[in-house]
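Supplementary Text 2. Reproducibility record for the structural model of the 123-residue chain.

All settings were left at their defaults, and a single model was retained for analysis rather than an ensemble. We include the record here because the model underlies the residue-level annotations in Supplementary Table 4.
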Amino acid sequence: AGRAGGVPVVVVVVVVMVMVMVMVMAEFSEINLVSNSNGTCTVDLQVVRERHQSDETAQSARLLTSTRSFRPDFVLVRQHAFSMTQNEDFKNMIIGLQYAGVPSVNSLESIYSLSDKPWAVSD
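Retained model, structure tokens:
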């Protein structure tokens, strides 16, 4: 970094690598996971965006949905896998990630075990 006329100048160097890393953040409710017996899994992510269109009288909103498929190389789970709310049991996705052998920052076994509170405190 240098100075040009009293304003700090920052030089940014971008190195292009052969391998590209893409980070995707989603809630369990937004993904569909398929775990295969060959040790791979595929995630389908349903992206829902709101599109605003203005016309002469009022604003109208329209939802746009698209699906994106990818194979995760690594996961970081920041959401509880189980909730008492209806349709909020996502333990099957944790099992699918474990079955496919997807590495994780936090242990998938511990995430699954802690999803059942009586099990976690019984020891």
